[in-house]
Design brief:
474 residues; 6-stranded parallel β-sheet; 15 strands; globular; binds 6-O-phosphono-beta-D-glucopyranose
């Protein structure tokens, strides 16, 4: 673990990701005393600016008391330079050496908050010029990792030529979310859940991602990727893999990731017939996707997708895993919903199904929909909930932000919540065929849905086709 004498270099320091996620996470760790001792933070980007201007940007989204922010500024500095060639990186090296002084260990963590176009060039430049021979080196990288299986492999092999798997930390920030991290304990630490988590008891599983805003302002980026590459192939599939995997041999990073890879390998590529695509259109004063000037005219890029995946192993064979994700929908919500099979009807007529819901955000919660007798003289069943809402049960407990948790793990050298190269490979295998179909000249036309709605009108028909029964309360 990196306990002291570490320099963190944030590449792409003038960009949005750095400003909104990386610096706030670093600051939160700093304020809680969780960063290594004697840490320095160095921003690096092409933009020329003086230290004052950099500090202004660096601290724009920080939350905390002013004196801590001042302290944080004191350990932060900035160097501008190019992403290609050696010159900029040589300057960076000089700067690091100045900060490191006569330290014996020179640990360097490189956080790549960069667009994919310069990513491998920078990884090479860093290795060549700024790699520490007297300490630990780590490189933290984040999606997009290519656009399909082939481009991902190309990118990974270029990266691997420079940085070992052990030095590489691939972020999928969903793996840092409290509720996703909770899955292991929920599933394997509760005997009744463990016993019921299989095809004998589960009818269908839904993993839902909903955002109430469109792609305003990042239409250009989004149009190249679409909702499937943006959140399904990574965030939602990672969540699914932990939800569906077998119990790992231990909590170690390799044991956990071995099981994730194994379950992912049993998922065949998604079939065209199991896909429903949508694109939002304007509603009231809210613009449609195509109204964004940065979006190419007539684009058929999906902003909504529902897909069914099948896990062909003894535990899950035949159970549909429905993934739904969309922008510009009616609410902000990410949840996993495991719907159990019907109770034996025998003495009942139409008793609702049990459902286990794990709400990832907002307001973390786990609740189990179950039937109970309506209190009173008559014997009547009523749907109720066993409700574990975190705000109520863990009052005043700080739930760390995903990026804080992950950056801390990277300092500790714990890879459990980072994506291993073989995971990435299988993840792309599952999605590449439908992505090529969607990108190709036979691209299906996405179904329109109004901004702020629940998605294309076919959505309920889609989920019910895979056995989902809406409960009477909804
Ligand atoms: C990012 C996507 O990876 O995840 C965004 O590029 C999306 O489009 C975001 O909004 C969602 O993350 P979160 O943490 O807000 O659920």
């Amino acid at each position: 673990a990196l306990k002291d004498e570490t320099v963190v270099v944030v590449l792409g320091a003038s960009g949005d990701l750095a400003k909104k996620k990386t610096f706030p996470a670093l600051f939160a760790l700093f304020a809680q005393g969780l960063l290594p001792k004697d840490v320095h933070i160095v921003g690096y980007a092409r933009t020329k600016m003086d230290e004052a201007e950099f500090h202004k940007r660096e601290t724009q989204y920080l939350k905390g008391d002013d004196s801590k922010i001042e302290e944080f500024k004191k350990i932060s500095s900035y160097i501008s330079g190019q992403y290609d060639g050696d010159e900029g990186f040589q300057e960076l090296l000089k700067h690091l050496e100045k900060l490191e002084g006569d330290r014996k260990t020179k640990n360097r963590v490189f956080y790549m908050a960069l667009p994919p176009s310069v990513f491998t060039t920078v990884a090479k430049g860093l290795k060549k010029n700024v790699y520490s021979e007297d300490g630990i080196n780590r490189i933290i990288v984040e999606k997009p990792f290519g656009k399909d299986l082939e481009s991902c492999r190309e990118m990974m092999s270029e990266l691997k030529a420079q940085w070992s798997e052990n030095e590489t930390y691939r972020i999928d920030h969903y793996l840092g979310k409290e509720m996703v991290k909770n899955l292991l304990i929920l599933r394997f630490g509760n005997v009744f859940l463990d016993a019921a988590f299989n095809k004998n008891f589960v009818s269908n599983v839904q993993i839902t991602f909903k955002e109430p805003f469109g792609t305003e302002g990042r239409g250009g980026y989004f149009d190249e990727f679409g909702i499937i590459r943006d959140v399904c192939q990574n965030h939602l599939l990672q969540t699914l893999s932990i939800l569906a995997m077998e119990r790992p041999v231990s909590f170690s990073a390799e044991d956990i990731r071995d099981e994730k890879v194994k379950v992912l390998r049993s998922i065949p590529a998604i079939a065209q017939k199991d896909v429903l695509l949508g694109q939002y259109v304007g509603e009231g004063d809210k613009p449609g996707y195509l109204d964004d000037d940065t979006v190419p005219k007539g684009s058929v890029c999906p902003t909504f997708a529902a897909m069914t995946l099948w896990v062909n192993n003894p535990r899950w064979e035949g159970v549909p895993f429905i993934m739904k994700a969309g922008k510009a929908l009616n609410e902000s919500k990410v949840e996993i919903r495991v719907q159990f099979k019907d109770a034996l009807q025998g003495i009942f007529t139409d008793i609702p199904r049990n459902e286990l819901v794990m709400r990832i955000q907002p307001s973390e919660a786990v609740y189990l929909k179950m039937n109970a007798k309506l209190p009173g003289f008559a014997t009547r069943a009523v749907p109720t909930e066993l409700d574990l809402t975190y705000k109520k049960r863990f009052v005043d407990t700080n739930i760390p932000q995903a990026y804080e948790a992950l950056i801390l793990d990277a300092f500790k050298g714990d890879h459990s919540n980072f994506v291993r190269d073989d995971e990435l490979d299988v993840a792309w295998k599952i999605f590449t065929p439908i992505l090529h179909w969607i990108d190709g000249k036979d691209a299906p036309k996405p179904e329109p849905y109004p901004y702020g709605s629940r998605g294309p009108k076919q959505i309920d028909e889609f989920t019910s086709k895979y056995g989902y029964k809406r409960s009477p309360q909804e």
